[in-house]
Amino acid sequence: MADTLPSEFDVIVIGTGLPESIIAAACSRSGQRVLHVDSRSYYGGNWASFSFSGILSWLKEYQENSDVVNESPAWQEQILENEEAIVLSRKDKTIQHVEVFCYASQDLHEDVEEAGALQKNHASVISGSPTEAAHSAYLPSEDESLCTVSCEMPTEQTPSSDLEPALEINDVEVTGEKEKRYDDKTCVKSASEEETSENVPTAEDTALPPKKNRITYSQIIKEGRRFNIDLVSKLLYSRGLLIDLLIKSNVSRYAEFKNITRILAFREGRVEQVPCSRADVFNSKQLTMVEKRMLMKFLTFCMEYEKHPDEYKAYEEITFSEYLKTQKLTPNLRYFVLHSIAMTSETACNTVDGLKATKNFLRCLGRYGNTPFLFPLYGQGELPQCFCRMCAVFGGIYCLRHSVQCLVVDKESRKCKAIIDQFGQRIISKHFLVEDSYFSENTCSHVQYRQISRSVLITDRSVLKMDSDQQISILTVPGEEPGTFAVRVIELCPSTMTCMKGTYLVHLTCTSSKTAREDLEPVVQKLFTPYTETEIENEEVEKPRLLWALYFNMRDSSDVSRNSYNDLPSNVYVCSGPDCGLGNDNAVKQAETLFQLICPNEDFCPPPPNPEDIIIDGDSLQSETSEFSVIPEANSETPKESTSLGNPEEASQ
Amino acid sequence: MHGRLKVKTSEEQAEAKRLEREQKLKLYQSATRTVFQKRQAGELDESVLELTSQILGANPDFATLWNCRREVLQQLEAQKSPEELAALVKTELGFLESCLRVNPKSYGTWHHRCWLLGRLPEPNWARELELCARFLEVDERNFHCWDYRRFVAAQAAVPPAEELAFTDSLITRNFSNYSSWHYRSCLLPQLHPQPDSGPQGRLPEDVLLKELELVQNAFFTDPNDQSAWFYHRWLLGRADPQDALRCLHVSRDEACLTVSLSRPVLVGSGTETLLLTVDKSPLAVEWRTPDGRTRPSHVWLCDLPAASLNDQLPQHTFRVIWTAGDAQKECVLLKGDTASISTPCGSTFHPCPALTLVPFYHPFLFSGRQEGWCRDSATDEQLFRCELSVEKSTVLQSELESCKELQELEPENKWCLLTIILLMRALDPLLYEKETLQYFQTLKAVDPMRAAYLDDLRSKFLLENSVLKMEYAEVRVLHLGHKDLTVLCHLEQLLLVTHLDLSHNRLRALPPALAALRCLEVLQANDNAIESLDGVTSLPRLQELSLCNNRLWQPTLLQPLASCPRLALLHLQGNPLCQAVGTSEHLAELLPSVNSILT
């Protein structure tokens, strides 16, 4: 593999998160020779999406906290006298406090499988095409192996040794605080025991008919490929920068989107729909006539609040929530506007920011549907891949599972001139773009990070039942005490291609104040109830039941300034990981800014020319034209398939 | 630079485009020419279909070519076997669909589809409904498609309930949809037929209340959307009143009989005929309008021959039958000097009916020696509330309350204000008179573009109120002074008025309809802006006319007055014409029979 890599590029991008991928695409589009590498076996970094087995492997990696250092050729001897090296980290420290809970009944009685099987499986499921193809040929056997793996995951048995104490403590806390407590461990244990004794015969059955209202863990495992579990939970604002960019650059053709179908609010212990569009207000049964008018009137004003400064100038000094009280809005409406439309909190936001946020929300309404948001089918992780694909179409070269040992800096000019990769190959380039998790502690010793608390749940039904069960919802639960942050809940239905039939995939996100579980569990308990056998018999269960839950913290480096890194040469640019916000504007802005530094005065991701406008003559253009003939035929899986080394130029020849 | 694509410049692109367009135009023109030639030569074969489809595919609005296609298809129908024909129809339907995709609002295309479906022995209506649903999915306000859908639904006999549910779904998506609301107004009466209200009838109260809630949701959500207000008005409105003869008047002096009808008609044209019987034997008479013009009018009159007024019988009974309106009325003229009251037609007459309870539809009757009449009372609910009314005043009352609530939130919404005014009129015009006038003022301020319309509407309402008051007072004198009137209407209601005061208003004309006031003796119209007197014509009893301080600027404007035989006193002070030299002489010449003209 190493032999095939050219030794010189214009831009080397390390990390395949969204901002890096956009920059790679933009550079490649404007004619730069781009090498895009990622040390991981999948695209997207912390922006990735995983199948269920994929996420289990990902978990395993972090729980093991493995410190696998492959033996790599030493780079030290390649550094010349007038050079020095910036060593890159081999270990990802962006994910912490991973905790996983399984509530679904586990109708398996196999022994816990050893870690080796999991490791093997991990590689096969999420890595490159040859193995994957082999596996799809042996689907049953893979399922088997997955099933056995599943036994190992459930709760108490294996979460890595250093997490076990933490679990214990949490359980104690929960039982202490809550009257109606759910001791996860005992529940699961008893459930699994019951199941084992009862369902042994059916569990063996491969064509397991799904029982009504019952999803078992083995079904989740079996249908694991139906899941696309996002590490970051974001949506696209219909008029946000990312949508504009996708359209402008024509990258949108590589992806499909669905409109979020409803905005929800959680109020007085109840989930209700927030009427935000004109049609919603018209159809709403919960608002009185007068409330409808007041809400519409206020929202209409927000649409062009700048034109009526007299209406809000006097309130600029106070918070948005105080300002709302001065408007003719009932408490009901104030809650909707503050938490679900402006999506701000009681204390954090002043009048003008609140109005701005409301306006932005309203501006996005109606472009693609009755809510302002879009969700990419198959998960957020599709988006970086779409841009990578565009980069590859214009000649960018892709290497996954390809780590970089160090950046080589010229002592005299203080410029970076090359990288040395895991094979010891020295690759020259003019510009270097590095995702910040690749920097070692030496580089980041002064950097302060924030944290994002994340939770991913698999549930058995929606938090708010409606005529259609294919709803995609966003729900904001405001922080209860001062100092805690609002929790954003996004519930995805199977038609988003992110979860199996009969389940919902729920993402919770908030800015961390403690560990993810401490931050998010109260909200999870408000909205959901753990899955237990006893409650199945009870028809009166109101809340959706939890089948599986995952908590983790992700590092938020979005507001780290470049200056806080030690000794970065001017041609090394830093991309941050995902931020906590709902939209993707931050990533796009970052990408555009960095692109302008690399290619000043170049258009940022202009639309590709029409095939008929391309002039085909001269030998030098052969390669490009052949590229273009490939585009229409190429199917959307291309980036995935060409994971290890994707160069369509070569592929087409 | 490496990897850079070489693309055409914008000039090259423009040039390529231009050439392409030129080529297209050439093809288009030659194809059109060929089609016309073939049509002229009567060669209506499949080649014409082919050629027209090329052109219509690009421009579906070429109506002549659709006609051409129809001619061809009609010819082929006779020549082809059923199988061939079926294939032909199938391609034609497919072609129409592709044309609709080019232009979903092409009259010609939709019409052609109607025509084609109408000719098919076994049209697939389900498919057509599906097609409509798809086009309305894309544009829910495409009224061409709505039209076609109504056609299809009628042909396929789709149950109104299903169609209603369809309008529901589209209104839910976007309630600014005239077509959808309109369709509801057609479907609901079908779905809930009421025994005595015909196809345009009223709805049962529970349905009505549900619709009102729906439409209220709409105008509380967006009060500036007109479609909902129009539907609201339909819901609260009622069907046209039944045809009726409102008033019948016989005068011995003028030997004349006058009738007033509930709607303007052109007597003598087609089906509109008025039959007169005197003492039960028919009498052929010549009907004319009061102002002598032959056009639809509320009021018609005829001269009576001397024989029908002679004193040989103690009384004469006149009956007028309006054949088309299926209505009739009769009145009696007595012999001798004293006026007396009789009770014909078997109905009980109340000697002093006005101030107390007046039973609805009770005719007012008078029979005298000089004149006799029979008329409906305007004080009964019927007359002036046609704009907006409904069986239950409780419904109106609650509508009024919610509109007032909305008005508090939206003080400047014209639709809300107008609806409040209409509701108040429907509830009780006299009780709400003052409030109504205030709302008019607000409405005029927020909607200055329609100030003149509102002034006229206000004038109309005030005039109605005055008529009601006059009738309650049981007099033939009508005071309309100081009311800011801009227009005179309902004049056909004033057939019996003898004294009319129109002073201190903003009238610019005494309109032709004024000629209907056959009993008018004194007319005061001082201090207006009158510059035309078309209506003061052939008023048989007019003696005194005051027109001081108006805008009459030349003597010839007074020409119509010459036809008023009894006019004796004319006040013209303060008109521009008084300034001119020789006015008095001119006027004396123009109006020789008027004793006294004051200038």
Automatic annotation (TrEMBL), chain A:
Name this protein carries in UniProt: Rab proteins geranylgeranyltransferase component A
Residue ranges annotated as compositionally biased, kind Polar residues, are 635-653
Q: Which Pfam families does this UniProt record tie to the protein?
A: GDI, RAE1_2_domI_C
Cited function: Substrate-binding subunit (component A) of the Rab geranylgeranyltransferase (GGTase) complex. Binds unprenylated Rab proteins and presents the substrate peptide to the catalytic component B. The component A is thought to be regenerated by transferring its prenylated Rab back to the donor membrane.
SUPFAM superfamilies membership: FAD-linked reductases, C-terminal domain, FAD/NAD(P)-binding domain
Highest taxon of the source?
Answer: Eukaryota
Q: Which UniProt keywords apply?
A: Cytoplasm, GTPase activation
One of the record's GO molecular function terms: GDP-dissociation inhibitor activity
Domain RAE1/2, by residue range, is 452-580
Record's subcellular location: Cytoplasm, Cytosol
A GO cellular component entry from the record: nucleus
Asked whether the UniProt record includes Chloroplast among its keywords, one would answer no
**InterPro entries per record:** FAD/NAD-bd_sf, GDP_dissociation_inhibitor, Rab_escort, RAE1_2_domI_C
Family, according to the entry, reads as follows: Belongs to the Rab GDI family.
UniProtKB/TrEMBL annotation, chain B:
Q: Which GO MF terms are attached to this record?
A: Rab geranylgeranyltransferase activity; zinc ion binding
Q: What is its EC number?
A: 2.5.1.60
Task: Give the coiled coil ranges.
Answer: none
- InterPro entries per the UniProt record, alphabetical: LRR_dom_sf (IPR032675), Prenyl_trans_a (IPR002088), RabGGT_asu_insert-dom_sf (IPR036254), RabGGT_asu_insert-domain (IPR009087)
PROSITE patterns assigned: PFTA
Rab geranylgeranyltransferase alpha subunit insert-domain domain spans which residues? 245-340
Keywords in alphabetical order: Leucine-rich repeat, Phosphoprotein, Prenyltransferase, Repeat, Transferase
What GO cellular component term, any one, is given?
Answer: Rab-protein geranylgeranyltransferase complex
Q: Which domain of life is it from?
A: Eukaryota
The residues forming the signal peptide are none
Q: Extract the Gene3D superfamilies matched here.
A: Protein prenylyltransferase (1.25.40.120), Rab geranylgeranyltransferase alpha-subunit, insert domain (2.60.40.1130), Ribonuclease Inhibitor (3.80.10.10)
- Give the reaction(s) catalysed: geranylgeranyl diphosphate + L-cysteinyl-[protein] = S-geranylgeranyl-L-cysteinyl-[protein] + diphosphate
Which terms under GO biological process does the entry name? Answer: prenylation
Q: Does the keyword Cell inner membrane apply?
A: no
* Family membership: Belongs to the protein prenyltransferase subunit alpha family.
Q: Which PANTHER family does this UniProt record tie to the protein?
A: GERANYLGERANYL TRANSFERASE TYPE-2 SUBUNIT ALPHA (PTHR11129:SF2), PROTEIN FARNESYLTRANSFERASE ALPHA SUBUNIT/RAB GERANYLGERANYL TRANSFERASE ALPHA SUBUNIT (PTHR11129)
Role description: Catalyzes the transfer of a geranylgeranyl moiety from geranylgeranyl diphosphate to both cysteines of Rab proteins with the C-terminal sequence -XXCC, -XCXC and -CCXX, such as RAB1A, RAB3A, RAB5A and RAB7A.
This protein's name: Geranylgeranyl transferase type-2 subunit alpha
